């Protein structure tokens, strides 16, 4: 049985961008595995643009658009995936986004992370969406939850920074960075399965999908 749409409030962390949107109690969600969505933890709501009402900001003056695409090799093969995201230009919260391929091609998506706190007993943990039943009882999300797999096979940006000079038989070198490669980091650490990885539920961590691990034994980064 379908429930009547409800009005939910969405806003970036600093409040420069705000909107209202009418959605079902448990709207259909889409999780994409393109490199940008994985890095940012985006969870998308589609087909809701007609019910979206901007109440503050959400304009060229308050949003910055980032456009990412696949590697040059994939472009030549005709498989290029272009991803656009609109972020608050003050706090960095991603509010809206589009893809050029997949079931969501050409549609404007609303980042569910921005409004999840307005849903009772619904929360996001990593790449999963769950609800809370009895105390300490986690249940699957009762609405539709779709996973878009193999959305992007882009080659990671080659690491160009300095590497930590720390030895240890139990340490492994990990490199990573932002989607465009402007910021890169290298760390030596124990395996992720051997360290505690924490995902906080404060308002900014939920919106921008921050997950933490203990400060590594050694780290180095380069800015370009």
UniProtKB/TrEMBL annotation:
<dbReference type="Pfam" id="PF04828">
    <property type="entry name" value="GFA"/>
</dbReference>
<dbReference type="InterPro" id="IPR006913">
    <property type="entry name" value="CENP-V/GFA"/>
</dbReference>
<dbReference type="GO" id="GO:0016846">
    <property type="term" value="F:carbon-sulfur lyase activity"/>
</dbReference>
<keyword id="KW-0862">Zinc</keyword>
<keyword id="KW-0479">Metal-binding</keyword>
<protein>
    <submittedName>
        <fullName>Glutathione-dependent formaldehyde-activating enzyme</fullName>
    </submittedName>
</protein>
<comment type="similarity">
    <text>Belongs to the Gfa family.</text>
</comment>
<feature type="domain" description="CENP-V/GFA">
    <location>
        <begin position="8"/>
        <end position="142"/>
    </location>
</feature>
<dbReference type="InterPro" id="IPR011057">
    <property type="entry name" value="Mss4-like_sf"/>
</dbReference>
<dbReference type="InterPro" id="IPR052355">
    <property type="entry name" value="CENP-V-like"/>
</dbReference>
<dbReference type="GO" id="GO:0046872">
    <property type="term" value="F:metal ion binding"/>
</dbReference>
